[in-house]
Write a structure and sequence with these properties.
Layout lengths: L9 E6 L6 H12 L3 E3 L1 H13 L7 H9 L8 H4 L2 H11 L2 H15 L4 E6 L2 H5 L5 E6 L2 H14 L6 H17 L12 E4 L5 H13 L2
Parallel strand pairs: 1-3, 1-4, 2-3, 4-5
Helix pairs in contact: 1-10, 2-3, 2-5, 3-6, 5-9, 8-9
The structure holds adenosine-5'-diphosphate and cytidine-5'-diphosphate.
Family: Belongs to the cytidylate kinase family. Type 1 subfamily.
Main location: cytoplasm
Catalytic activity: dCMP + ATP = dCDP + ADP; CMP + ATP = CDP + ADP
Length: 214
């Protein structure tokens, strides 16, 4: 069952590949407009993490569905979920169509809050909120994205190399783009925002410009 979104609500959808900067932009946009923000990648990371914690394989359909069905948004351990191994596990459970079905309603209900909401992920503009007022597809070259994620993970004390991070990003992008259900693809009516040569402030200004032109 899909949630009813008021016609005057400002729903903003940001999608894009790993470490393109969509989460950073989504947070800043939500702050600017006083809207709630949902990082939908965290949901898939939490499912992957839950399966791993029970000693399971993220490719195990039954185990992933069971964890997804019991997901508690209030109990997400964000710091842990942002670790490199969780990104890979997330991408594997995210390729299971039944897991996506279980998480669909939760995301739509979040988007249906009275004033609107900002959601970031892979399929927000295409599947979760096809009627979003603004859709932005955030990209950057794989090398620049890997550099950003490498700095982030190294800053958290994770023992990673740039080469490992780049390989992880390319593997996840390929899996996310080629899966049959809700693949990573820009919605036909999304605005493309390439952040390769933009710092966070410049990317934020470009996003505000897109939103202002809606
Ligand atoms: N335009 C940018 N320039 C430089 N670093 C950025 C930019 N946007 C985001 N970052 C940094 O890159 C990393 C990944 O950004 P994040 O917003 O988490 O990406 P995503 O949500 O697309 O995976 C974070 O450490 C963030 O601070
Ligand atoms: N709406 C979404 C969000 C994330 N995901 C999956 O979850 C994984 C982790 O998403 P994320 O947004 O936390 O990853 P990063 O872009 O931050 O690296 C992605 O690689 C996707 O496989 C998805 O399928 N659909």
């Amino acid at each position: 069952m899909s949630a009813y979104v008021r016609p005057d609500a400002l729903v903003i959808a940001l999608d894009g590949p790993a470490a393109s900067g969509k989460g950073t932009l989504a947070k800043k946009i939500a702050g600017q407009f006083g809207l709630p923000h949902l990082d939908t990648g965290l949901l898939y990371r939490a499912v992957g993490c839950g399966v791993l914690d029970h000693g399971g394989d993220p490719g195990n359909v039954a185990a992933a569905i069971e964890v997804a069905a019991k997901l508690d948004l209030a109990a997400l351990d964000e710091a842990r979920l942002r670790g490199a191994t969780m990104g890979e596990a997330a991408s594997r459970v995210a390729a299971i169509p039944e897991v996506r079905v279980v998480l669909l309603d939760l995301q739509r209900r979040f988007a249906a809050q009275p004033g609107g909401a900002v959601l970031d992920g892979r399929d927000i503009g295409t599947v979760i909120c096809p009627d979003a007022k603004v859709k932005i597809f955030v990209t950057a070259t794989p090398e620049v994205r890997a550099e950003r994620r490498f700095k982030e993970l190294a800053g958290r004390g994770e023992a990673v190399t740039f080469e490992d991070v780049l390989a992880d990003i390319e593997r996840r992008d390929a899996r996310d783009s080629s899966r049959t259900t809700a693949p990573l693809v820009a919605a036909a009516d999304a605005h493309l925002l390439d952040t390769t040569t933009l710092d966070i402030d410049a990317a934020f200004r470009a996003a505000l410009d897109i939103i202002g032109r809606r």
